[in-house]
Amino acid sequence: MPATMIFVNLPVKDLDAAKAFWEKVGYSCNPQFSDDRCACLVISDTIHAMLLTEARFKEFTHKAITDTSTSTEALLCLSAGSRDEVDALVGAAVAAGASEPRPAQDHGFMYGRAFEDLDGHTWEIMWMDPAAVQG
Fold this sequence. Notes:
Layout: E1 6-12, H1 15-25, E2 28-30, E3 38-42, E4 47-53, H2 54-58, E5 75-79, H3 83-95, E6 105-106, E7 110-116, E8 122-128, H4 130-133
Parallel strand pairs: 1-4, 5-8
Antiparallel strand pairs: 2-3, 3-4, 6-7, 7-8
Helix pairs in contact: 1-3
């Protein structure tokens, strides 16, 4: 059975700026599923974010787009292989223009940080000690 894939659809104010931001963080877009109104951000083989211009995003919903400066639509969490990977990814995002909304959370067996991308979407990056999840 093939792995389930996820395509998270996110509205962006400036598609070119969003693509440039994510390239600086270290990701790329799949041109096969991108055009002048959307970009398919490849996070892993099974995780993608569809960056949609607000006009394109509105074609998929009758609801208002969340104002991420005052509301949180979702917390998007990605796992990392180590604490250093958490720090590297969040550091790259901040260097590319993201903001860090809170200090790191260190629970010993679990470590996480977060950043808000250029459009205010909150991304949480976390590492968990594999020994903590073994039965």
